[in-house]
Amino acid sequence: MNSQKPNLFVPALIGGAVAGTLSSVPLLNCFCCLWIIGGAMLAAYLLVKDSPHVLSAGDGVIVGILTGIIAAVVRSFIDIPLRPFVRGFFQNMMKWVAEYTEETPSGWEDWLGAEISAFGFFLELIASAVFFSILGALGGILGISLFGKRAQHKIQG
Length: 157
Known about the structure:
single chain; mainly alpha; about 70% helix
């Protein structure tokens, strides 16, 4: 039996890039959790397709975690140029909401428009990587169970 482990990085890179990109697009990012699970399932599918032997749920977990980490990095870096546009959109929306409400706290517009620091960026990246890794592990297990090759048992008689 061939004990060589399959290459997990390329499928995880593809799945993470897809999931991270879709998770950073405004309005599509509402389905962020779904994109991460789907990206990990894509990575598991690509892993199964290129593997000559049966893969375990552990392989799905590993490729899913890698996918989640890559998706977090991709999403964080795509968010950098999109952040001013998204912030402006939400500021305008909240100003519109404030016109119709009486109990809006003063100064909330300044809080919403605050710039993110380098520390905040890395804190957000780490939190995203942890959360996306958990979702990626779930997607990897689902992908292996759906697309995985089954072991063929020979009945000896």
